[in-house]
Amino acid sequence: MKQTLRPIALSGLTVLLATAGLLAAGPTATFDDFKALQAYSSVSTNCVHVRQQLESTLMALGNDRKALAGLQAKLLPLLSAPETTHDARDLILRAIERMGFCNNLPAVATLLTDARLSHMARVALEGMKDSRVDDAFLAALPKAHGDAKVGLVISLGLRRCEKAVKPLLSLKDSSNAALAAAVLTALGRIGTSECAKALLTPVASPLEFQRQSALAACMNLLRGPEAVRVATAVFEDTKAPAPLRAAAIRVLMRNDKGKTSVWFDRAMADSALRVRETAIRVAATELNESEALIAALPKAAPEDQVRLLGALAELRERRAGAAAAALLKSPDVTVQQAAARALADVGGPDQVAPLAELLAKDDLREAAMVGLSNMRAEGAGQKIAELTAAAAPQQRSRLVAVIAARAGKQALPELAKYINDPNETVRRDTWRALRDVARPADAETCLGLLAQAQETDRSAAEQALVSALRLMTPEERGRALVAAWNRSETAVRPSLARVMAYFADAPCATPLIAALDDKTPAVQEAAVRALSGWPDATPMEALCAKAFSLPTESLRSQAMRGAVRMIAMSPGLDAKARLLDLFRKSPDASGRAAVASALGERLGLEAFGVLESLFDDAQAGASARTAYIALYEKVKNATPGELDPKTWKANASHGAHIVRLAFDGNKKTRWTTGGEQKPGQWFALDLGRVAAVAAIELDYEGSGSDGPKGYKVFTSMDGVAWTGPVAEGEAPPKRAVIKLQGTPVG
Questions:
Q1: What does DSSP say about strands 735-745 and 722-730: parallel, antiparallel, or unpaired?
Q2: What is the full DSSP assignment across 64-81?
Q3: pTM score
Q4: Which of 190, 372, 374, 611 could hold 344 in an S-S bridge, CB 3.0 to 4.6 Å?
Q5: Which DSSP helix (H) or strand (E) runs through 694?
Q6: CB contact at 8 A, 625 and 612
C-alpha cells in the first residue's frame, strides 16, 4: 500500500500524519487480499502488510454497519476453510470482536470448543448484546474440555446468563478445581435466588473462599425480600467469617426497609470489628442514617466511637455536636482526640467552651486546636473571641493562637486587641501570631501596630511587619516604608530602620542617609547600623563623610567598616586612593585597622607597598606600621596549596560552552578554542574568593599543536576592573608554569 498523507481530526485539532500503510487511502477503502489473509503468520515479516491493511480498512469503515457486514460476510467463511492458518483465524476473530456484531454466529461458535481458538472465539462474542450468544455458549459447554470449558463458564458468568444456572450447578462439584472455582464465581455474578441457594451450602475447604466471595457478590445483586432472606441466613450464621457477615449486614441495611436502624443496632452489638465497621460506613456513606450514628455514640466501644465520630464529621452533621462534646470527657484519650477533631465539622458555639478547656492538656491540645481552628459553624468565631477576652492569661495565650490559626478576615483586628495586654506572655504570643498570619494586604495595619507596640515588644512587632511586607514588590514595599517613616514618631523610627535594613529596598536609602544627622541618638544609631550593612554602594559617600564625626567610637567604627566594604566592592572606583584617604582621616586605631584590612583584601600584596608609603606620615605612620605587621602575619600564616576548583567559574572568548573541561580534573578532556589560537583570545577564571595566587600551570601536552603561543595574565577583584599584565611570555611546548609572586585575584 503506497504511502499517503491524510488529515485526522483529534478532539477538534487537525493534524497531518505521514503513514506507511497504516491508514487506508480513503473512507471507502476495503480489504480484498483474502488469499494472503488465509496464509497470514504473526511471526512472518512478509505478512505484516496483511494485518495493517485489515486494520486500516476497519478504521476507515468506522461504524458503517452495512459496510462492515459486507466485509464480515467475506471473512467468516475463511474460519472453516482448511487452508486458513491458526494465526489468520485469530486475526479474523479479533476483527469480529472489533465490529461488535456477528451475522453468522455458527461460523464463530464452531470454534468455541477448539482448544487453540476457544479463548479468542469467546472474546469475539462475549461483549455482544445478543441472546443467541448465550445459546451458543450453552450449546458448546458440554462439548468443551479443559481450559475451553472453564472459559465458557467464565463468559456465561460475565454475561449474567440466567439460563446457564442449571447447567452450571451440574458442574459445581467437578473434580477439576479450576472449573469448580469458575462455576462458583459465575453463580455469584449471575446473582439469582437459585444461585444464592446453591452458594449457601459450604464446599470443600480449597474452594470455600471462592464460595464465600461468590455468595457476597450474589447477595449484592439480590433485591427485596429474597435479598433479606439470604442475607439474614448469612448474618445469623455464627460460623460464617466476618467479611461475609459484613457483606450480609450491608445487604440487610439496604434492603430491609423500615428496619435499617434495627440491623444497624444489631451490627453495632456484634463481636466482629469488620461487621461494625461496615455498618457504620453504610449508614454514613450510603444511607445517611445520621440519627442512628448519633444514637450509637454513647454506648459504643471506644474504637467504634472513633469511627462513628469520623463518619459524622464526614456528614458534617451538626446535630451530633452535643453527643461529640460529651465524649470530650471520655476516659479514653483516643476518643477525646477524635471528638475534639470531629467538633470542627459537627460542633457550634455551644461546644467552643468545653473544647477550649482541652487546650490546657498536653495530650489533647493539638486535637483541640484542630477542632477550634476549623470550626466554621455560624457564631463559633464570635464565641471564641468572647472566651478569649474573658480568659485567664495562660488560657488567653492559647486562644490567641486559635484566632491566628482560624486566619479569617477578622484575625488581625481581633489579635490587635491583645498587643498591649498586661500579661507579657499574651503579648509575646499575640505578636508571634501576627507574624504567622500577616500578608501584604495587612502591611498598613502592621505598620500602625508597630507604633502601638511597647518598647519591649518592638522586636516581635518588627518580625510581624517583615512577614506582612515580605511578598510585596521592592517598589511597593519601599514606598510603604518611606511613607511610614515620614509620618512616624521618633520612637518608632529605629524599628522602621531595622525593617528597612532587612529588605534594603532602594527607596529606603534616602531617609536613612538623612537620619545620619538625626539629633535623636537611637535614630542615628539605627540609621548607621542599617546603612553600614547595605548590599550596594548607595550610602558609601554618606558613610565616608560621616565616619569621623559620629558621637561614639562604636558608631564611627561601624560606619567606617561599612564605607570600607563598599569601597572594596565598587567596580571602577579608585579604591586605593579612597582607602588611603580614609586611612589618613581616621581618628583612631580601630578605624585605621578596618581600612588596612580592606586594603589587604582589595590590593593583595600590593597593600604592603601602600602601607609602607605611609610610614613617615606624622599622623598615620604608627598605625601604618601596625597594620603592615598585622597584614604580614596574616599572609605568613596562610596555608599554601592548590585552590579547590569546585567553586570556580569560567568564561572564554571561544568555546565558552566547554570552559569547565579546563579544570575538571580529567586529563582526557580539555578546553579548546575550536581552531588555531590567535592574539586577542582569552580565558577568564573566577576563583570564587579572593586569594593570593603564586603560580598558574597550563597543561596542553595532549593537545598537539593546539597549545598557546604566548600568554598575558591579568587580575581582577570584581571581573570588571583588571590589573596587569602581572605576567607575560612565550609558552613552552607541552606545559607552562606562570609564576605570579602571590598576586591577589578573585
A1: unpaired
A2: -HHHHHHHHHHHGGGGT-
A3: 0.65
A4: 374
A5: strand 691-699
A6: no
